[in-house]
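Worked example 4.2. Below are the chains of a multi-component assembly; read each line carefully before continuing.
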Amino acid sequence: MLERKKLPNKFTYPFVLKACAGIGNLNLGKSVHGSVMKFGFGDEVNVQNTLVHMYCCCRGGEGGIEFARKVFDEMYKSDSVSWSAMIGGYVRVGRSSDAINLFREMQIKGVCPDEITMVSVLSACTGLGALELGKWVESYVEKERVQKNVELSNALIDMFAKCGDVDKATNLFRSMRERNIVSWTSVIGGLAMHGRGVEAVAVFEEMVRSGVTPDDVVFIGLLSACSHSGLVDKGKGYFDSMRKDFSIVPKIEHYGCMVDMLCRAGLVKEALKFVQEMPIDPNPVVWRTLINACRAHGELKLGEKITRQLIRNEPMHESNYVLLSNIYAKMSDWEKKTRIREAMDMKGMKKIPGSTMIELDNEIYEFVAGDKSHAQSKEIYEMVDEMGKEMKRAGYMPTTTEVLLDIDDEDKEDTLNRHSEKLAIAFALLNTPPGTLIRIVKNLRVCDDCHSASKFISKIYNREIVVRDRNRFHHFKNGLCSCRDFW
DNA sequence: TTAGGGTTAG
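Applying the procedure described above to all two chains together yields the following structure tokens:
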């Protein structure tokens, strides 16, 4: 009897391509794409949509996102699924601006977005830290009556929290009729980022009381909340409770939170002991947390030793060199610092340039250190000078040990004044009415000097300044910061 | 009976 050969049909490929997406192997995906063409399913919109999604999920070589865009651009007919797949793809690889631009194109083309599209667009706003844009998306959802399901509400909570308006995030959470563990996690994590640990703990307790079983992710948010608010004893208690009361085995992220918690509290030695006694291997993130604490709390020799070991294990990770360079700067050991710089140059590594973003009148402005590209550049630098004078009159001392260059103090001060954060604040002071809140978003952590300067500026100019840095928020008000100088 | 989405340390 002849064996009947089964041929793939148009329902087969979405399955297979989805599996490829899960594996994330570009070459495998390409070969399935070849098969799609061979069997004549290259014009099926459903198959094309999954191809776009598959390529968006693939790494390797030059990355799959450009292949995805090629398939997407060549589609004869596209629907909201195609656009969502492509927009979501950009978000996943961190290309939030491209995601937003594609959404604008979608509107011009007249393709109607649905709730899934809007979730990705909100994630893009979150990635950029663009609150005004996020608010616009929210009003669009209301106006166009996009179905507001749990996922979309969760995306809104996350967006508001990570774009700086955690009160709005909390209110939204309160108004939800149906919540799931992600909703709770988003609001707890959001409060954590803003240093509102006591409230985060209260929300967690409320969650448990209401019968929702915590998972490992919500514990990351909870422990990070304790860490950012200096609640060391509470944090230790919850860490033990994970295993004891909820049978959750702590993962490296939970250990990371504990190390961070001890470090922020200045308990560097205890943190080191904790790391040495951990039942799982510490990863580079844990070591870097410890190293940064060594620098901040003056344990410079210990920090140097750990960093040297880390560089031996991870020689191509640039932030390790930056950490070591920061330690030498604090030791005022310019010779060793220069050698680190040279080692980085030889390996072709560069420090990531710091940048600061600010939204004004529906535009996004970005500043880098020493930026002269802005039309208002002259006024901005005049404003920076004026700010410097006012701050000094109020008692501000530039933190010149932060500057990683072997130059004299006056030049160091000039370098500090050109930090992107100060340029963005000057720009905001020039262009917004007195008393208005200033929101800025940084790609790196805020430096000691900008942190100190922001406190002075909030008082002198009577402005609340909300800064999102790489890890968390700082709310500067009347000369104080919500992080209570733990960061 | 197929395709796109939300939370995760520093």
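Take a moment to check your reading of the output against the notes. The first strand of chain A starts at residue 355 and ends at 360. The mean pLDDT of chain A is 92.
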